[in-house]
TrEMBL record:
One Gene Ontology cellular component: plasma membrane
Residues annotated as domain Phosphatidylglycerol lysyltransferase C-terminal: 460-753
Cited InterPro entries: LPG_synthase_C (IPR024320), PG_lysyltransferase (IPR051211)
Transmembrane feature ranges: 36-58, 70-93, 105-124, 190-211, 258-276, 283-305, 325-342, 354-378
Key words of the record: Cell membrane, Membrane, Transmembrane, Transmembrane helix
Membrane-related topology note: Multi-pass membrane protein
Superkingdom of this protein's organism: Bacteria
Gene Ontology MF terms in the entry: aminoacyltransferase activity
Protein name, as recorded: Lysylphosphatidylglycerol synthetase-like protein (DUF2156 family)
GO biological process, one term: phospholipid homeostasis
Cellular localisation: Cell membrane
Length: 790
């Protein structure tokens, strides 16, 4: 506790000072403007102070004590001045979104916290720099547009001031260019943005006095129905029969289901954000649909209907055009951004799951609509007879958020209990199904069924030939099982080519027959079968069993751990480099993702993101995993950790099994921090080789390298494409010189080949392999790659 207070002395002291000032001024008991997510009162002040202390404390660890104090004061003074200036400008132009700051007691601890954390982002690494700025400014803007209280404008202005001050302190002004992100990070950022837009309407509602441009979104999900006492007062006024009749009609339309429906809608959007964070494409598509629906509902409720009603009555349309435009644009833009980045969501759902969810939603709509129409046609349910066309016309309102009703022309309203029950609950029932579907899509994946995953892992333990066999478990691919269930083949379907990853796993004597059966199944589906990165021995067995041709695609760098001994001459360079790192206090830690502390996990993710953001090689897929693949409990990690607990380098290792016995490890992910000590990679690899030697394993694979010769390649385009892919795969390991590090271990070069049945399909196969490794390749990058190859 003492160490925490010492590291965050300015933040804690600043929070304590604000608390003393609040008590001295009496503002802690006044109805004051504060963070829009909370109500006013003493409890809110305590929450705000704790949040400010935590946020500023994190910033203080990067900025230091003096710079944190300077940034906090400067951003507060300039932010409040700029915020009040924005509010005053809004008043001058008669903006309905502007709230007058005069007479407001403003003591908001989050204003200096916003400035400090944005300043600290300039000093943070690329990963947290982007996260702080994207998520931070998205939240600040969303709160401002949703509530627009004086503190909201001041927080946003303080954040901008802090961003500029941080750039000056770091001597690196913020650039407008967007740094490249990993697929993992793109998913996290988009999920955060979708989550913020789901929370925004609630912010607009809980704001005590705000009237932000996004307040229409809040009105869509609020319950605008009048209280019974209000309706009674209207009906007591003999001069307002129309208001009395409408109030009674609104009361008849009210109910718990109507209030629950918008909550279910926004909860479904939050569930979509959760699924997006885990790479679920179906969740991203559903989020796009929901965001688009919110934009359409806002346009209809606050644009189309008021304009139509004004045209019919001859009255001028007095709706707020700026509010309506912004409230429509925000969800529409979010939907467009997610749609443009769908390629980053690789995990596809099972078709039967999509069909089941679609059938459930359709059944709820059909049955609910039929019940609503049937009840409407019953005599007395609505106090009088209703025509069929009237019952059909009022049906869409049953599925729209209840806020839609306060601007809609109310039709017949239920009087008896059956009509009340049906009217109130068919909408929430549909949105409950949507919410359940969003939660199901979070866990469902076409390549990760429980039964298929267990069968595949069981066969991998029986026999996973080659060093890349465990990659069959990675998401994004599909699995084919032989009829007898003794073998399985992991493959990717790209551009009409079925690319099998490695050899069939399972019983050794059935692998060739399984390959032939798989090829026949592919031909029946109109696909070209291809076996990628298989051993030359297996390739020759295929050619002997049918019309298959072989192409060299790479060499597996394999180290025999039994020869890695201190007395061996060839280990001298490796041990010299490893000893150099060890003398500087760096130790090798053998663990797994589940065994890492949250702090170590965050450092591994940051190293991976830094490599991509700082202009490293693009993220590859297929046979090169990333952070997502580390979560498998079967995957091991070897970390280089210094005396202060910092992770300087990280490597991941995939297992290979034979008859239930572990026989080897294969290097997959390799990351090294920019300030890592020389020799850390040699230390990690040497530690794994020594561990494999002590455990009696047969091999340690350092990954695939480009072939030393092109072999017997007859297609020039395929030749160049495969060489380009192999070189990108080598660079994609994450080290500046992976080949040089591997060479110190003097690995044996085991040839890997591509087996294909049709030479005419070779160019298409080469393009399919390129797309398999670079599934997120943009059109511009694809044109650049093809130009380079030609």
């Amino acid at each position: 506790m003492t160490a925490v207070l010492r590291r965050s002395a300015v933040s804690v002291g600043f929070a304590a000072l604000l608390l003393v000032l609040a008590i001295a001024s009496g503002s802690h008991v006044l109805a004051r403007q504060t963070a829009a997510l909370f109500a006013s009162g003493p409890a809110v002040l305590v929450v705000d102070l704790v949040m400010a202390a935590v946020v500023m404390g994190a910033a203080e660890r990067l900025l230091g004590h003096l710079r944190t104090a300077l940034v906090a004061v400067a951003s507060t003074v300039l932010g409040v001045a700029a915020g009040f200036g924005l509010q005053a400008a809004g008043i001058l132009v008669r903006g309905v979104w502007s709230q007058a700051p005069l007479g407001t007691v403003l003591l908001d601890p989050l204003i200096p916290a916003a400035g400090a954390v944005m300043a600290a982002s300039a000093i943070a690494g690329p990963l947290w720099r982007r996260r702080i700025r994207v998520i931070g400014f998205t939240g600040l803007v969303a709160v401002l547009l949703s509530s627009d209280e004086p503190a909201d404008a001041c927080r946003l202005a303080a954040g901008v001031v802090g961003l500029v001050l941080g750039g000056l302190l770091a001597r690196r002004l913020p650039r407008m260019t967007w740094r490249r992100s990993s697929h993992h990070e793109v998913r996290n950022l988009l999920a955060a943005v979708v989550g913020v837009t789901a929370v925004g309407p609630f912010v607009a509602l809980t704001s005590r006095a705000g009237a932000g441009p996004l307040r229409p979104l809040g009105l869509l999900v609020r319950d605008p129905l009048p209280a019974a006492r209000t309706v009674a007062a209207r009906c007591a006024d003999a001069d307002a029969p129309g208001a009395c009749a409408r109030g009674v009609a609104l009361l008849h339309a009210s109910g718990p289901g109507a209030a629950l429906m918008p909550v279910l809608l926004l909860a479904a959007l939050l569930a979509c954000a959760w699924g997006m964070q885990h790479g679920r494409r179906a969740a991203a598509v559903l989020a796009v649909a929901l965001e688009a629906l919110i934009a359409v509902l806002t346009a209809v409720a606050f644009g189309v209907l008021p304009a139509v009603r004004a045209a019919l009555t001859g009255r001028p349309f007095d709706g707020p055009p700026l509010q309506t435009l912004l409230a429509i644009l925000v969800p529409a833009v979010v939907a467009a951004v997610v749609l443009l980045h769908l390629r980053h969501f690789d995990v596809l759902p099972r078709r039967r799951t999509v069909r089941a969810l679609g059938a459930a939603a359709a059944a709820v709509v059909v049955v609910g609509s039929a019940a609503d129409i049937a009840v409407a046609l019953l005599p007395g349910e609505f106090g009088g007879p209703i025509a069929l066309i009237t019952a059909l016309r009022r049906l869409p309102e049953r599925y729209a958020p209840v806020g839609f009703l306060h601007l809609a022309a109310l039709g017949p309203t239920p009087v008896l209990q059956p009509a009340h029950l049906v009217d109130d609950w068919i909408g929430p029932l549909l949105w409950a199904v949507v919410l359940a579907g969003a939660l199901v899509l979070r866990f469902d994946a076409a390549d990760a069924s429980v039964d298929g995953g267990r069968r595949l892992r069981s066969l991998l333990r029986e026999g996973g030939p080659g060093s890349i066999s465990w990659m069959a478990t990675w998401p994004g691919g599909r699995t084919w099982f032989s009829e007898d269930g003794r073998n399985a083949i992991a493959f990717r379907e790209v551009g009409g080519v079925a690319i099998a990853l490695g050899e069939p796993v399972g019983v050794p004597d059935g692998r060739v027959d399984a390959a032939r059966a798989f090829a026949a199944a592919c031909v029946d589906r109109g696909l070209t079968p291809t076996f990628y990165a298989v051993s030359a021995a297996f390739g020759r067995r295929l050619t002997a069993a049918g019309r298959w041709s072989l192409v060299d695609v790479g060499e597996d760098a394999v180290v025999d751990p039994r020869g890695f001994a201190p007395s061996a001459e060839w280990t001298r360079d490796v041990r010299t480099a490893a000893d150099r790192a060890a003398r500087r206090g760096v130790s090798a830690v053998w663990t797994s993702w589940g065994g890492c502390s949250p702090n170590r996990r965050a450092q591994i993710v940051a190293m991976s993101e830094d490599r991509v953001a700082e202009g490293g090689p693009p993220e590859l897929g297929f046979t090169l995993g990333g952070v997502d693949e580390l979560r498998d409990p079967e995957v091991a990690l070897m970390l280089a950790v210094d005396g202060e607990g910092r992770v300087l380098a990280a490597t991941s290792w995939l297992p290979t099994w034979r008859k239930g016995v572990l026989v080897g490890w294969t290097l997959d992910l390799l990351r090294r921090s920019a300030d890592a000590t020389n020799g850390v990679l040699e230390l990690l690899i040497a530690s794994v080789v020594e561990r494999a030697r002590d455990d009696g394993l047969e091999f340690v694979s350092l990954g695939t390298s480009p072939p030393s010769t092109s072999g017997d390649r007859t297609d020039v385009l395929l030749d160049r494409l495969l060489d380009t892919v192999a070189e990108a795969l080598e660079a994609g390991r994450g080290s500046s010189s992976p080949a040089a590090v591997k060479a110190r271990f003097q690995p044996a070069a085991v040839p890997l080949v591509l087996a294909h049945p049709d030479s005419l399909a070779l160019p298409a196969t080469g393009v399919a392999l390129t797309r398999a490794y670079l599934p997120h390749l943009t059109t511009k990058a694809a044109i650049r790659l093809v130009s380079a190859v030609r």
